[in-house]
Amino acid sequence: MSKKSHTGLVAALTRMALQAHILGQIILFSHVLIELPGQAVVADDRGVDEMWMLDELAHAGAEHLDEKFIAGFDRKQGYPDPAADIAAFTALGLDGTSTVVDLGAGTGQFAIPAGRRFGRVIAVDVSAAMLAALRAKAGDKAGDKAGDKAGDKANATPGGAGLECVRGGFLSYSPGGPVDGVYTRNALHQVPDFWKVIALRRIADMLRPGGVLRLLDLVFDFGPEEADAVFGDWFAHAAANPADGYTAADYAEHIRTEYSTFRWLLEPMLAAAGFEIADVSYERRLHGAYTCVKVG
Ligand SMILES: C[S@@+](CC[C@H](N)C(=O)[O-])C[C@H]1O[C@@H](n2cnc3c(N)ncnc32)[C@H](O)[C@@H]1O
Each residue of 142-158: pLDDT tens digit? Predict the structure, then answer.
C-alpha cells in the first residue's frame, strides 16, 4: 500500500470511529423521568448528558407545557378515530400480548384506546402537564368516551389495564428491552431534521426485528416552488375560532417556528434509520401517515 493510500485509510477509519462514538453516546444517553401511577416522579439518570444534546423540553412547544392550553387540547385537535392506527399494528401481527410505546402521547388520544387493545402501552411525553392530563383522562368516564371510538365498551378498563405513563422524550426515553410497536403522532416535527434521524434510529433500536413504527405528522408532500400555493390553500381551510381548531395563524406559526420537513427528505431518513415503508398515505399534501417495519 502506498503511503498516500495508507494515510487516506487511517483518516477514513478515524472518521468512522468518531461517527460510531458519537452515535454510541446518543444511543447510550438516557435521562428518563419515570412516573408510576399513584407514585412520585422518580429521576432515573443513566449515561452521560452530552453538552451538545438537544434540550427536548425547550423544543417541546411552550403550549404543550401550559395547563390552560392542554385543558382545551382535545377540543382544538378534534377526536381522531384510533381504529385505523390500531388496525395498522394488528395487520402486521400485533395483538393482546404486544407492547406498544406512544412517543409524544399528549392527552392519550391514541394511548388510552390502544391500552385496551394491546397487552402493554407505554405513553411517553416530555411534558409533565400532558401526562397529568392523560392520567386524569384515563382514570375517569369522560376519558373512556373520548378515547374509545373503536367501541369494545364491554372490556373497557379505564385507560386499559396495561397503560403506563413515563416522562421522557424521543432522544432520552428507552424502554429497557425490545418492544413490538412504536406510535407517534404530530410530535416528531418538534425536533430539527438532524435530531429526527437520531430519534428514528433510537426508535429502530427500541423495536424487535420486524417491529412496527406507525408515524403520523405534518410533513410536506410538495416541492419548494409549491409552498405558497399549498400553504395558501391550507390557511383558507383553517378554523376561525382557535378553541375549535387550528387557525391560519396557528399554521403560520407552525411553519415559522417548528420543524415539519418535506416528504422527500423524511423518507430517506426512515431508510437511513433502518425502516422499510409498508404503507403510506397523505392528506392534502400536508399530513403523512406511515406504517414502517424495522428491517433485520
Ligand atoms: C401536538 S401534541 C400531539 C399529542 C398526541 N400524539 C396526539 O396526537 O394527540 C405533541 C406532543 O409531543 C410532545 N413532545 C414534544 N417534544 C417531544 C419530545 N422531544 N419527545 C417526546 N414528546 C414530545 C408534547 O409535549 C405534546 O404532548
Answer: 333 333 333 333 233 44
